[in-house]
C-alpha cells in the first residue's frame, strides 16, 4: 500500500505543482509568480537555517544532559524534511515545507505524525510477527535464534530418533598418576 502511495505522490505532485503555478500565474502574472517562488525559497532558506541551528543546539543540550532526545530528534527530522520540501520549486511543497519548519506549526505536525506512526505500529502488532517462528534456513545468515538459548529456533525439535549412549573417543586417555 505504501509503495503505491509513494509512486502516486511522485507522479501526481509535479502535475499538481505545475497546475497551481499556472493558476497563480494567470491571476498575478508570470513574472510575479516567479518572484513569489524566489521569495518563498529565500525566506524558506533563512528559516531552515535558523530552525536547523536551534534544533542542533537542542539536540546537543539534551545529549549533554544524558536525556533521550525524542522531541528534539523529531524536530530536527522535520526541519530537514521541511528544508528539502522548500528547496523543491512549487507552492504546494512550499506550503508543506513551511508547516514542517515553522516553530509554531511544527509541534502540531510532530504530534500528528507520531499519532499516525503509533496507529501503524498497533496495526502491525495486531497482525502478528513479520516472520513465523523458525523462519530462515538453517545455516543462513537470516537464521532465527532463540533469545534464551542462542540456538536456531528449529533446533529445539530433535531430527530423527534419539539414541541414549556415551561417546568414546580414541584420544581420551586416563590421566597418569
From TrEMBL:
InterPro entries: FxsA (IPR007313). Signal peptide: none annotated. It comes from the Bacteria. Residues 148-177 are annotated as: Disordered. Keywords: Membrane, Transmembrane, Transmembrane helix. One of its GO terms (cellular component) is membrane. The keyword Manganese does not apply. Pfam families: FxsA. Residues 167-177 have a biased composition (Basic and acidic residues). The chain crosses the membrane at residues 6-22, 29-48, 76-102. This is UPF0716 protein FxsA.
Amino acid at each position: 500500500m505504501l509503495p503505491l502511495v509513494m509512486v502516486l505522490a511522485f507522479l501526481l505532485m509535479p502535475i499538481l505543482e505545475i497546475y497551481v503555478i499556472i493558476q497563480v500565474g494567470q491571476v498575478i502574472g508570470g513574472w510575479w509568480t516567479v518572484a513569489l517562488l524566489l521569495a518563498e525559497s529565500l525566506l524558506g532558506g533563512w528559516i531552515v537555517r535558523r530552525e536547523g541551528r536551534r534544533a542542533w543546539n537542542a539536540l546537543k543540550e539534551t545529549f549533554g544532559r544524558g536525556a533521550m532526545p525524542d522531541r528534539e530528534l523529531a524536530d530536527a527530522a522535520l526541519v530537514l524534511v521541511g528544508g528539502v520540501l522548500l528547496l523543491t520549486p512549487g507552492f504546494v511543497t512550499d506550503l508543506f515545507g513551511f508547516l514542517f519548519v515553522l516553530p509554531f506549526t511544527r509541534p502540531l505536525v510532530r504530534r500528528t505524525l507520531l499519532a499516525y506512526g503509533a496507529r501503524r505500529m498497533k496495526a502491525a502488532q495486531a497482525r502478528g510477527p513479520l516472520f513465523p517462528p523458525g523462519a530462515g534456513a538453517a545455516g543462513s545468515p537470516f537464521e532465527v535464534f532463540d533469545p534464551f538459548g542462542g540456538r536456531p529456533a528449529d533446533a529445539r525439535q530433535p531430527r530423527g530418533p534419539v539414541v541414549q549412549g556415551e561417546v568414546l573417543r580414541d584420544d581420551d586417555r586416563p590421566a597418569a598418576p
